[in-house]
Recover the amino acids of this structure.
């Protein structure tokens, strides 16, 4: 057999002595050689086990102790991502690779080549895992810094990992077939179309992540809204292929990252970084309650304790904006609403604050309050807007105004309770024959 082909003068001294001893005990040369080979594998397996125990229990324990004494964080991340255990594995495999030709000398090139091939493939995989651990460490250290909120590198790290494993795969294939890696790379050029098809999403995602990062369109922690994908929440993670959004109902939406370049979405980051968050709410007023005010009515209105504090400012604003000599309760209410919002401590005074008329329709007269709240957190923001509306609704009766509400249709019980006289009157008024 080629594996057991041997030249006793070239065999490792200890193995040659063992084989000679076995032949003296009566074993055939082939049997002694096979037994010696099995014994060699057993000794190597025992040696690997001992080195692994020493590495994981002793050496790795010393490394953990040294890491715990340092103030830097990079070594903690390396230890957490198993960089040091893989370094020990790589060193062990490298030591075995150096001993193979010496220990198995005389057993033929096929056996030495097979063992060397397995060790080289193993070292390539472990090396790729080590580089991945280094990349994870770089990402963790970067994410521990404040600037990581502005720009994430997770997509680049994942792309680098893909490149590392592609290179590792090329090296492994070249080791297995005994060809130079450059020959395989030249062969990949002919299959570029297939590669681009297989890695279409990765390529699109990588290009899109570069565009998003260069234009600062999205960051982890941004509140985005993308109705086409059912996303309305905070960006929790940006990967090379997708963006993970935690919606306000605590569901998760995965958006292909290239969709953020090819489709439109709303990013609320600028609102969060600005001075305030905008609010605008309509108040629908019953048109039948709008009237002019006499001097007596105006005096009584300004003396009302609910609005007396802002009465003078309201009248000044009314004189500045009014063009008619007559005052209406609706116009004064608009001035009051604007003065009240402008003086509210939770409304941004440096941004536009106004109460304006909207086009009239069948739902009455519409007054819209418009401004910016200093509170941008959703619950507190809604509380501020609710306080504004509650106050304006409370003072509205002082101006003689009321909200418009569309009349509800009578229920069946109400129809049944109508008297015959009422029914006849209703029919007569509608022009219906009375029979």
């Amino acid at each position: 057999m080629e594996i057991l082909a041997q030249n006793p003068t070239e065999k490792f001294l200890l193995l040659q002595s063992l084989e000679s001893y076995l032949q003296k005990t009566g074993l055939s040369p082939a049997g002694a050689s096979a037994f010696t080979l099995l014994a060699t594998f057993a000794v190597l397996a025992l040696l690997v086990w001992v080195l692994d125990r020493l590495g994981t229990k002793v050496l790795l324990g010393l490394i953990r102790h040294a890491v715990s004494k340092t103030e830097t964080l990079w070594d903690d991340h390396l230890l957490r991502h198993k960089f040091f255990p893989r370094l020990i594995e790589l060193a062990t495999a490298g030591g075995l690779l150096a001993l193979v030709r010496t220990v198995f000398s005389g057993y033929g090139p096929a056996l030495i080549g097979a063992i060397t091939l397995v060790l080289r493939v193993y070292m390539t995989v472990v090396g790729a895992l080590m580089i991945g651990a280094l990349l994870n460490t770089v990402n963790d250290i970067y994410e521990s810094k404040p600037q990581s909120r502005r720009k994430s590198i997770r997509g680049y790290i994942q792309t680098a990992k893909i490149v590392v494993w592609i290179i590792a795969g090329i090296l492994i294939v070249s080791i297995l077939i005994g060809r130079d890696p450059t020959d395989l790379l030249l062969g990949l050029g002919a299959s570029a179309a297939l590669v681009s098809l297989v890695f279409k999403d990765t390529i699109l995602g990588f290009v899109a992540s570069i565009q998003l990062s260069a234009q600062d369109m999205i960051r982890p922690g941004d509140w985005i809204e993308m109705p086409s994908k059912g996303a309305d929440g905070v960006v929790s993670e940006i990967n090379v292929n997708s963006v993970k959004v935690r919606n306000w109902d605590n569901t998760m939406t995965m958006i292909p990252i290239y969709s953020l370049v090819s489709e439109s979405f709303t990013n609320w980051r600028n609102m969060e970084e600005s001075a305030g968050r905008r609010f605008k709410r309509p108040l629908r007023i019953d048109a039948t309650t709008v009237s002019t005010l006499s001097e007596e009515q105006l005096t009584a209105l300004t003396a009302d304790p609910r609005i007396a504090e802002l009465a003078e400012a309201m009248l000044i604003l009314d004189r500045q904006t009014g063009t008619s000599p007559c005052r209406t309760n609706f116009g004064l209410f608009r001035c009051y609403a604007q003065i009240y919002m402008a003086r509210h401590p939770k409304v941004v005074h440096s941004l536009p604050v106004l109460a304006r008329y909207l086009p009239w329709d069948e739902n009455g007269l519409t007054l819209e309050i418009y401004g910016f709240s200093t509170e941008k957190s959703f619950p507190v923001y809604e509380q501020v807007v609710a306080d504004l509306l509650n106050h304006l609704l409370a003072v509205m009766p002082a101006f003689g105004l009321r909200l418009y509400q569309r009349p509800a249709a009578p229920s069946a019980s109400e129809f049944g309770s109508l008297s015959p006289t009422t029914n006849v009157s209703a029919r007569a008024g509608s022009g219906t024959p009375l029979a």
The CA atoms of residues 359 and 366 lie 7 Å apart.
